[in-house]
Amino acid sequence: MLNRAARFFPILRQLKSLLPAGGALLEVGSGSLGLGEFWTDPFVGCDITFVSRPVKNMRAVRCSGSQLPFKDRAFDAVVVSDVMEHVPPRHRREVVAEVLRVARKVVVFGYPCGPAAFQVDQKLYCDYQSRNLTPPVWLEEHMLHPFPDEDLLAELPAGWERKIIPNESLPFHYWMMRTEMFRLWNYSFRLLLLVMPSVVERFLQRVNREPPYRKIFVLTRASQPAYV
Asked: What confidence score (pLDDT) does residue 224 get?
């Protein structure tokens, strides 16, 4: 529970400042929860499969991130959180191109970034094995491909600007994922988020330090002249 708050809270702060009121929002690779765990407004979530009933405020669309069934600039904002590391490297730029195509104003990518982050998850994977525990599916998938780095979003089409935000220091991420191996910690984190969400958010902001496990890339499309 805490790990989902850690990766989504910084994204939510960006959306609150950049997404127009009532703006159309898409999450690529949402699964059944996605932003809807913390975001109360309606949004579209797409994924190749939904293992459970999607949250009520999500309009679920089954599709691939490399072939989005939406018109150009159909959404004011598009979020892609912890998806790119699951995409085979040869297809990653296809997903980026599709996401930029359907976005009107803002795109937020967040993903574990680079070799150091990959090494932390390798260590976590070994911890599961040493305790004779079955690693979660997402961690199994993390072992399949090297993580993307900043270069994935280094060359953007004309008119797009990029800002990078560090998310979860490497030591904090490892500590957090280790503690979530134990049910008592999971229950405690869930209770804290219900009772004191603002306190948890302030704490999580303090651990968004270098070197980060994840980087959040906020891409904004420059405003065009009215006559265009």
From this structure: 52
